[in-house]
Amino acid sequence: MEHKTYARMLELKDELVGYRRYLHQCPELSFDLPQTRAFVLEKLKEFGYEPQTVGRAGITCTVGRGGGKTLLLRGDMDALPMAEETGLPFASQNGCMHACGHDFHTTSLLGAAKVLKEWEDELEGTVKLLFQPAEETMDGAADVYNAGILEKPHVDAALALHVVHAPLGTAGYTPGHACGSSDVFTVTIHGKGGHGAAPHENIDPINAAAHIILALQEINSREINPNQMIVLTVCSLHAGSAANVMPGEAVLKGTIRTMDLQVKEFARQRMREICEGVCSTFRATCDIDFIGGGIPPMVNDNALAEEIGGYIDDMLGAGTTYHIERMTGSEDFSVFSQKVPSALFWFGTGSTEQGYAYGVHDPRVTFNEDAIPMMAAVYAESAFRWLREHHCI
User: Fold this and answer.
1) Distance from C-alpha of 320 to C-alpha of 332, rounded to nearest angstrom
2) Per-residue pLDDT tens for 191-240?
3) Residues of the chain with CATH 3.40.630.10
4) Is-contact 63 47, C-beta < 8 A?
5) Which CATH number fits domain 4-178+297-389: 3.90.78.10, 2.60.40.1120, 3.40.630.10, 2.70.40.10?
């Protein structure tokens, strides 16, 4: 027998697929989301909401009878600065692409919003909807948090779904620490430029940079407990432009990913000491900058994740949910997970065996639109069930 909430989403499938295709054709970046925001606002008002802006570009509204707890449902809206190569008839043409499935997330949350409003009398508490900007640039969650998204009303728990290259209709989650923190660093090495034929008269910043790159790897292999995860990667080295001119400067850029904030702070401190020490050895100097404050690790609340997983299995079939290994990639939903019990689920939108060969952030990636009503139903059913089960707690 088909579950009531999922059955309603299947009735809405054609409408929701239309939403998704519209959003897919007009991908926008970071906080600059005029078309996306206009579309979301229009639909929410059409459903009977009074949406408000939160932070620089977020959209929020509430639904429910109140008198109980509040569950936050989050969907992100931004795309990636990359040209689409799918060949789909509704492919984007503006040099940007929803290659991480945020058009699915926005659409699914709109579908949930519609049904939650239709069945508002069944909500034994409050649902706060959040359409979030700037997940890809990792500063959208912090922006809406600083603007007070977890208050008025106070949020008791939070749920987010994210598409993933996995069998259609599956939902994976990691108990506890799920995604790494993310810090971006820049190391600028100052030497003394000159002719490449007379290195003894110069101070070589490239040589210092090479030694720094190697020395930084010792943080992971020799200074961090092997039971604690850390990834420290230098992804960019820029210095000079001519074959016979030693430059006066070299710039390294990279990222640190950890599951533990203390490990992150230790790695930052050792980076400073290593970079300054190596530069001193080679008579150079350096500046070390960590861009922004970084984002914390994503930590799933085990009790909440098990509850949501149970709702998904009840609705879509036993065995739909499964445990996955933690990942070093980052998700800024982690900002909320540090403040309230939170759960992040990775929802399968098609595997290689099912004809979906590419993963997220690939310009050729496509997603099975049959997942849209499933994801919308997960959002809505989780709200109905969780608020009912926690109404008197």
Assistant:
1) 25
2) 999 999 999 999 999 999 999 999 999 999 999 999 999 999 999 999 99
3) 4-178+297-389
4) no
5) 3.40.630.10
